[in-house]
Amino acid sequence: MRGKTLPIHGDGSNVRSYLYCEDVAEAFEVILHKGEVGHVYNIGTKKERRVIDVAKDICKLFSMDPETSIKFVENRPFNDQRYFLDDQKLKNLDGPSELYGKRG
């Protein structure tokens, strides 16, 4: 919106899971009401996207040209190709209804 470039570390092929904030809030509610104190519950999704694809979608939303708006910068040395969280423990709390994750 400010006309600045979108920096992408590396070539943008890194894969990430993106969550809607409403889904995260609903997952927190499930943990608050059904979780056990001292336990760890990962909030995640099996749906993954490449960083470059998300950047191109952002450009499209703001009528920006991805060719001029996306700037590839040096990759961070600790930037993993993929992060994976096992969220099965949280899904087991909620049961078959799967309260969160319905948007993404």
TrEMBL record:
Pfam families per UniProt: Epimerase
Superkingdom of origin organism: Eukaryota
Parts of the chain that traverse the membrane: none
InterPro entries registered for this protein in UniProt: Epimerase_deHydtase, NAD(P)-bd_dom_sf
SUPFAM superfamilies linked to this entry: NAD(P)-binding Rossmann-fold domains (SSF51735)
Gene3D superfamilies reported for this sequence: NAD(P)-binding Rossmann-like Domain, UDP-galactose 4-epimerase, domain 1
NAD-dependent epimerase/dehydratase domain segment(s): 3-44
Family: Belongs to the NAD(P)-dependent epimerase/dehydratase family.
Protein name: Trifunctional UDP-glucose 4,6-dehydratase/UDP-4-keto-6-deoxy-D-glucose 3,5-epimerase/UDP-4-keto-L-rhamnose-reductase RHM1-like
Species lineage: Eukaryota, Viridiplantae, Streptophyta, Embryophyta, Tracheophyta
Gene: LOC121213772
